[in-house]
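Dear Dr. V.,

Thank you for agreeing to look over these. As mentioned in my earlier message, I'm a first-year student in the group and I'm still getting used to reading structure tokens, so any feedback on how I've presented them would be very welcome. I ran two proteins. I've put each sequence directly above its structure. The first is here:
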Amino acid sequence: MAKRNSNQKLTTEALLVHKLRNTFDDQGTDTDEGPNVWVMVVAARPYQQGEEKELAQQPDKLTPTHRVRVVLRTTDDKIPNPYVGGSDFFLAVNEQQQSAEFVWE
């Protein structure tokens, strides 16, 4: 998880990772506690105008800054699930305000 002291601001990349881990990580990777989910890999790139045409749902008020592909890994009981798949998300990141918000999912 991204760590910082009170005077240090997170980068865009760190804000993205922080938001995704807070949203998707469930019980980390400790299989002693039963099934869990965690972020395995993330690929992000700047949002390009017009990408919203690919979506079934049209955008809200907030314009995204990044398109992010997220691969989640799961474990059932004590055995890793062999299925791994990715999903695209659009997020708006503001380094100045230190925020990252989902725009379209």
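The second protein is here, in the same arrangement:
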Amino acid sequence: MIKEGILLSTVLLGCVQLVTSCSCYWRSAREMYCDADYVIMATIKSELSPPGQGEVNPGNLSLIDLFNRRVQYTYEIEIHHVFRQTASYSSAMKVIHTEGPPYCIRRFEPGSTFVIMDWVYTFYNHKVPMLGASPCGRAYNIADPDQVSDLEQLFEQDVDCSANTTNTVDTILN
């Protein structure tokens, strides 16, 4: 009976970790635009990650190891336009890097063009800051008419980031 209780607890904790690990504080497109370190239009040229980096063989991993496993992908990009940037963007290596658990990591298809709104990160195994592509950021595929429509609505507005209050305590609590 005790073994079953421990097993059930382990499975439930694993499920809670799985559900909460990919959750983000919701931001409108305007808030994301203003909070991001960079907003660019770029084409994914190629994946620079080592072969097999993202492959997962669940048969060789325990349930806990599968949940805790981190994968990373790095993409060479061609930047077509910079809509917005912070000082950290200027010093970052101009590649897109995405890292995290395999069940919520953002993947890109080479040849696709996106408008990406995200942050600059210095990942734990790298010393140089890189452009991140986190699940909490935004990546609008310009080949998708619905996503283009969302972008057009954002850019039709005169986005004034000086009025941005998304990080205040009042905004979070209300």
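From my reading of the second output: The two ends are 45 Å apart (CA to CA). The longest strand covers residues 71-85. Does that match how you would interpret it?

Kind regards,
E.
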